[in-house]
Amino acid sequence: MIQQNRGREAGVSRQQKLQFSLNHNLVHDDTEQPANVPAQNPVSTGLKLSYDDDEPNSSVSSASGSINASASVIMSLGDNIKTEMERQKKEFDQYLKTQEETWARGVRDIKQRHMVSLLSAVEKNVGTKLQEKDIELDNINRKNRELVERMKHVTAEVQNWCYRAKCNESLVNTLKTNLQQAMQSAEQGKEGMGDNELDDAASYIEPNNRLSNIPSGSGKCTSTKKGIICKVCKLKEVSVLLMPCRHLCLCKDCEGLVSVCPICQLMTTASVEVFLS
């Protein structure tokens, strides 16, 4: 842009100098021409013509030639100036186009860098969120596994309690039956009616374990009492039912002294206190 302005100023300056030179030459020619032409005496021709009559015509012709030359020079100079201005205009347009392309390329680069930076930030943020979600998902899966294990454990406990309830129910029914049989046997022994099968009440697993024939009279009552006494101390009445053999054969005091059933020699796992009276 600065070069174009300088070129234009140089062209205008050259045009002004040329115009000033032409004007100076014209003025100089007009002032010097009478001095250069020697004074001539008028010559009479009889036709009233003289050399002085031709002098204005020659001055006009010389001035016209100078003007025509100046005009041609000015026109040539104007064409040169016009050509130079067109060239400068083309250069200026090319410069503007180049600058426009440079600015457009710079703007595209800036936009591209901004987009890359934005995408990188978004990708980083999304990666962080995904990592947090993965950790949260792992925690949820771990809690689900813990809940599944807990449900399995609770289900097993429920089944165990159901099994225990059924076993206890069966045990209660068995105890009721044994107690009824024991009470019936005791009443029959007191009344002195026939043989008594006391071991049916004392042993659930060994129903064939019977006492020997009991003599009549008062001896029947004594044998009945001996059949329901403790198998260890032989003194107190039985009140403890052993598990799992279900033998009613121990008193409360002897319960903690033995670990096997004194009747079947089976290892005991639990015991239940029974109240016969």
Automatic annotation (TrEMBL):
Q: Which UniProt keywords apply?
A: Coiled coil, Metal-binding, Zinc, Zinc-finger
Ranges in a coiled coil: 130-157
Record region (Disordered): 29-66
Keyword Membrane (UniProt): no
Q: Does the keyword Ubl conjugation apply?
A: no
Annotated RING-type domain ranges read 230-265
Alphabetized GO MF terms? zinc ion binding
Can you tell which superkingdom this protein's organism belongs to? Eukaryota
Q: Which PROSITE patterns match?
A: ZF_RING_2
**Low complexity compositional bias, start-end:** 57-66
Database matches in InterPro entries: Znf_RING, Znf_RING/FYVE/PHD
Which Pfam families does UniProt cross-reference here?
A: zf-C3HC4_3
Its name, as the record gives it, is RING-type domain-containing protein
Q: Which organism is it from?
A: Solanum stoloniferum
